[in-house]
Every structure is written in C-alpha cells, then in structure tokens.
Amino acid sequence: MGGLSLKNKILTKVKDLPTLPEVATKVMEVANNPRSSAADMAKVISQDQALTAKILKLVNSAYYGFPRKISTVTQAIVILGFRTVRDLVLNISISGMFNSKNVGELSAEALWLHNLGVAVTAKILAKRIGYEPLEEAFTAGLLHDLGKLVFIKLFPREYEKIVTIAINGNKWIRDVEESLLEVDHALIGKWVSENWKFPPQLVRAIQLHHQPEIDNEYPELTSIVHGADVLTRIKKIGSGGDNQIPSFKKDAWVLLKLRPQDLNDIYAEIDREIKEAISFLKILRGKE
User: How far apart are the first and last CA of the chain?
Assistant: First the structure.
C-alpha cells in the first residue's frame, strides 16, 4: 500500500468490513427502544442458538458468580438488565469476528489479555465514582483497542512491522501506526464502531481513550477507560503492542477522584478480579 491517499484506502477497506451479525444489530435496536420488554430482547436473541448458548455460559461463569443457575435468556435480561445483555452480545459478536492471529511479537493471547485487564480495571474505577452500569465500563475497556483488532485482520503484514518497530525501537505504537498508515487505532476504532452503530458513549471511549481531556460529551466513561489503560500497562497485564506507559491525564485523574495512596488497593483489586474474568474471556473467545 502506498501513495498520498493511503488514509482513504484504509478507510475504504474498513468500510468493506462485514457488518455486525444481524442479531447484534437487532439487539441494539431493542435495547435503545424504551418500550421494549425483556421478552422482546429474548425473542431476538433466541433466534440464534449459538449466541443463546454462549450468553448462558457467560452469565453462569465465575465472573458473575450468581448463586443459582440462570437457565433462560429472559432470566439473564431481567437480572443483568438490557444494556448489560446488549453489551454481552456486542462482545460475543466482536470476539467472533476478530479472534485475531499473532502479529510478530504481539500474540493474540497477549492483546486480548490486555483488553481484559483494561475491562476489569475500568469496572473497578467505575465503581469507585458510582458510574452505572458497571458492565458498560467493562465493555468499553474490552473494546477500547478495537482499532488494533481491525488493523490485524485487514493489514496483518503491515501491523507486524508496526509492532516490531514499536517494541524494538521503544516507540509508541500510535506514533508508528500514524507514521506508516497515516491513521492510528483509536480513529480506526471510531470509524468501525460508528459504522456498526455502537452506543455513542462507547464510540467516544474507543476514539478518545488516549485523549480524555478533549471529550466533553462522555468524559466519565472516556476517563475511566483511559485510567484503566494506564493502570493495566503499569501492571503489565498482557500487551498492547508496545512497552510504553502513558502518563495519567490530569483531568481524568481528578474526575476519577484518585489519590496516590489509592493505587495499591486498586492494584490488589485488579489482581483478584482478573482471575475470575479469565473464565469470561476464555468463554468469549471459544477457548473453554
């Protein structure tokens, strides 16, 4: 790939990505309709047997830890709520489309583990400031690097080169992306999530998790994901494709009501939560 219109070539290829599965699109429509009932959403989901089975497997996993088995999708919707089940469907659909391959020194396992670390940490930070629903923060964390998954799927050879330069040259992966492809993963993630009609707060978190200070629409969720990314990198959970640790943006630090003395408690909570969330990730990616 080359030439002055490289960015436009990439955008064209991104637009040619398959759409989300029809059931996921319908679930988002139902979730956005205030007149919808749990039965309406269950009816849409139950048309896809594989999706139904995976949702039930996830809600009965150690991650949720419910004392009694949940045996129907309707039960899951009533207990977890519309937005959480919508987010589950999104997570399942995207992990199915982007069960990514290794690219050079960045393994699929390491990238998904990084995403899981950000998801778990985002939920912890959300709980600290009373952000609801908590599972929306988890989903925003899990999907924050959607653009990297897209790059790996569409441009695996180019992205392998990007990862190699970022790791061996001790550079920010975003800088290398922009240098070689004229666009970074955050903008790619925005294009894709908008095209797939994600909820606007998820689009913003994906687009601006490196720049929360410029988000004046959904600053809480974007700051949560930014903070979660920083702390996950400090903890070295998985890999985002480089060895860099971004600085915590001051606006996000203040919004999240953090103090230096809070960090050890947060790190301990991440260690506890990540163990249970591993089962969630394995089921999501069809590894369990």
Answer: 38
